[in-house]
Amino acid sequence: MLTTKCFIFVADYQTNVIGTNNNLNKDSSMELEILESKKGTKVVSATNLYHVLKLPMAQYSASVRRWLRDLYEFSDGGIRKPQVLRDYARRPRPGEPLEDYYITLELAKLIALRTTSKVKLKYARILDTVAHNGQMSLFVQAA
Predict the structure, then answer these.
(1) What does the pLDDT read at residue 136?
(2) Nearest 5 degrees, angle CA 25-CA 18-CA 24?
(3) Average pLDDT, stretch 21-37?
(4) CA nearest 16: which of 121, 143, 127, 135?
């Protein structure tokens, strides 16, 4: 029963593609696909995030496992590990050799900032802006 709910959770997504300067690009190395459910949940796929951050594909599996095991400081005020069906969900891709996941925009932003990518700040800002419905976070409380 849990698997069925997970599949329904990830099956009904519409795709929005955000590229450089918020234009659609034919260059697939610069596109960030943001998926949105009927209920309004916005996510990105782990493979797409990894690709746009221009990280080496040979280390994909190890990196994604580390992303899902690490501790992050989430906006709900807690320092915790990502939780299944709250921060990420497995993306069903039968026949594909790589495991893929749907990742919430907040977790994707935290992951992007932690990577060694040269374009991490650009995509972290895009993810933050889309997560806040186009509004920049200007008034953030200091810790």
Answers:
(1) 64
(2) 25
(3) 64
(4) 127
